Every structure is written in structure tokens, then in C-alpha cells.
Amino acid sequence: MLPPIYLDHHATTPLDPRVLEGMLPFLREHFGNAASRNHVFGRHAAAAVEEARERVAQAIGARDAEIVFTAGASEANALALLGLAAGEAAAHLVTSAIEHPSVLDNARRLERAGWSLTVLPVDRFGRVDPEDVRAALAPHTRLVSVMAANNEVGTLQPIAAIGAVVRESAALFHVDATQALGRVPIDVEASGIDLLSLSAHKAYGPKGVGALYRRRRPRRVRLGPLFEGGGQEDGLRPGTLNVPGIVGMGLACELAMAEMPAESRRLLALRQRLQARLLRELDGLQLNGHPEQRLAGSLHLSLAGVDPDALLLGLEDVAASAGSACSTGAVKPSYVLQAIGRTGTTGAAQAQQGAALRLCVGRFNTEDEIDRAAQCIVERVRALRRAA
Ligand code: PMP
Predict the structure, then answer these.
(1) Burial class (CB in 10 A: 0-12, 13-18, 19+), 316
(2) If you count Cβ atoms within 10 Å of the first and of the last residue's Cβ in the chain, which end, N or C, has fewer?
């Protein structure tokens, strides 16, 4: 029996063994608290944190002092939105319909607190039109929040173009770059970004650690903490630092940057191989997301005539995710697919859309695995269609 093939890299990525090696000393002998500057244990931990901060900053074209470590991108997104609103009068926030819940739900929380909220639509490929951002901007717009890459359909947003539009106004620009880190270049200067969220575990680093970039120059972005405590992370993120996690995030960023050019070509070739084979051997398939402006490893398909609840049941050899386009059973229709118009409004239209399958190729996948996965998916879909 061969091990199952992991094609769910949008959900999380395996820890790179090189990252693990770099973390281990900080789980063993170098266990100091990075705030204990009066002895060598603490100083060693603090130095490692600062080295990691530099590595994360370099990955996005930022300065070290602009990086705030958090417990992940959900927290970084919350800190960006709620931390900006803390102590300020209610203003206006612009975001898109396909953001991660940690953006959308916190945006709705601000709305309940008196902010006005504009949720921009996306086109059928999942793209936000920078002109829609321009039209939404008002004198009291405080923040525009748009993700760099979508975690479901893989679409890349025109971040630099949106940043240029936001720059012409008094608003700040927040980007959730969780899925983009290590997959596409990110440059906070070139894209006019003021706040940016990252997570280590989507880039072959450990879970439970992330970062928020917060611009300091030329205009300093003022935030309040989500909760009170010690003064760690410039007073923005109280609590003893997760030193092994932070070290891992730094190493993950460094590796990703070094390997991105070659790795993105390799991933693109593997994804195209998978896509071509599925499209050749199965009919009734529809590619979701943008055909070109998408993450190299990302493939999202609607499979007509396939029961969404049954699709993954017989697919034990492939670890994938089934966002459902249909709402017949317990599986709720995906709000991202709804936003790109891939779910029908009538029961019949939904049934015709069938199942949705999210696949994402990653660093340790081989060509042989891709071929085996394609074979399994083809067989499963044919079997389900025969049974229908
Ligand atoms: N934003 C996006 C686009 C994501 O894909 C995720 C993870 N699913 C998050 C934010 C949340 O990241 P974390 O798991 O680090 O909280």
C-alpha cells in the first residue's frame, strides 16, 4: 500500500525538515524566554527572534521593526482590522466578498460597532477590479483589505494596481498574503501596502505562528493590541514569544525566497500535468478561478453530475478538499464559489454544478504522485457518475 498523496497545500503544508532542524535547538537547550535579557538563555532566544524577524522582513521587502509576530494569519488579520479601529472613531472599511473569514467576520464586527462596510464583488474569475476599489473610496475610508491570493480557487489579485488606487486616497491598504507567501513575490513598497498578514504553516513552517507587517515609514500606522498583557512586540502582542515557532517561520521564509523561482516553475508544470490529464479523461469539468492569474500549484474544479458528499469518500489515496457547489446535504455552498457565480440559485442548477474539488500541489509532490492522483480521481468520478 502506497501512502496517500497530499494535495491539500492550501489547508496547510508539511514542515520542511530543514525548518524542523533549525527549530529543534530552541525546543531543547535554547529554551530561554526572549524577554529575559539579563542572562544568556534569554539573550540567545532574543537574538534568534531578531534573526527570524529579519528573515520575514526580507521576504516582503520590509524593515525588521515593521514585523509583529502573532499566532498566525487569523490573528494578524484581526490585529490589522480591530487594532486599527481601536481607539478611533468609526469610519469606512472596503473589502472583497472572497476574503478569509478572519477578515470578513472582523469586518462585520466593526460594522456592528458602527463602521460602514463595503464588500466588493469579484468577477467570474475571482478578481477584484481596481476601478471598483476607486469607486468605493470615500473621504472617511480608513482601510481597504484585499487578499493577495485566494485560498479556495487560487486566484491572484492585482495587488499593486489596487495599492496604487488606495495610495491616491487617505486610506490604508491591508493585504492578507497568507496563501501568497513563498508562492509569488510580495513587495510591500512596490505594492503600496501598509499592513500585511502572513502565516508560517502555509509555507512549510510550523503551525501557530504568523506575522503582521505594519508600516512605520513614511507614515506610521498606529494600532492598538487585541488584548492587554506584557509589552512584547512593541506592545501589540502581549505574551511570551513562541521562540521555536518564530525561528521556524524565519527559516521557512528564507527557504521559500531562495527556492521560489525554480519551485514555482516546477509546481506549474505539475499542476498543468494534473489539469491536462483530468480534462482529457473526464468531461463535464470546469476550472474555477483565473486561468492564468492563479497560484502555480492550485487547481479548483467543478465536476458536473458528481455528488459532492460522496466525492471524497472513495478517494482515500488523495488528500484533497471538497468545497461543495451544491447544498443538497450537510455541505454548505462555498461563499467564494457563490461570489464567482459558480453556484446556481435553484436546486436544479445547483445539482448540475455538482461537486467542487480543490487540489493544490506542493514542495514534496513528485510527478509520479501527480499521475497516481489523477488516476484515482478519474476512477472515482467515473464510478460516481455510473452510479448516479
Ligand atoms: N487567510 C487565508 C487566505 C488563509 O488561507 C488562512 C488559512 N486557511 C488564514 C488567513 C488563517 O491563517 P492561520 O491558519 O495562520 O490562522
Answers:
(1) exposed
(2) N
Query: What's the fold here for domain 17-254?
Result: Aspartate Aminotransferase; domain 2 (3.40.640)
Whether residue 106 has its Cβ less than 6 Å from ligand 1: no
Measured by CA distance, the residue closest to atom 7 of ligand 1 is: 11
Say how many C-beta atoms besides its own lie within 10 A of residue 307's C-beta: 20
CB-based contacts of 193: which residues, under 8 Å, 6+ apart?
A: 159, 163, 173, 174, 175, 213, 215
- pTM reported for the whole predicted model: 0.96
Confidence grade of residue 325 (pLDDT, cut at 50, 70, 90):
very low
Q: Active-site residue numbers?
A: 326
CATH hierarchy code of domain 5-12+260-387: 3.90.1150.10
Which residue type is seen at 361? V
Is the shortest distance between the CB of 13 and ligand 1 below 6 Å?
Answer: no
Say if CB 69 and CB 242 are below 8 A apart: yes
The reply to whether ligand 1 has any atom less than 6 angstroms from the CB of 19 is no
Can you tell me the distance from the alpha carbon of 233 to that of 237, in angstroms, rounded to the nearest whole number? 5
SS3 content of the chain, % helix, strand, coil (to 5): 40, 15, 45
The letter for the amino acid at 366 is T
d(CA 69, CA 34): 13
| Domain limits, the chain | 5-12+260-387, 17-254
Q: How far apart are alpha carbons 55 and 189 in whole angstroms?
A: 17
Atom nearest to 75 CA in ligand 1: 16
Q: Lowest-confidence range among 126-135, 223-232, 280-289, 306-315?
A: 306-315
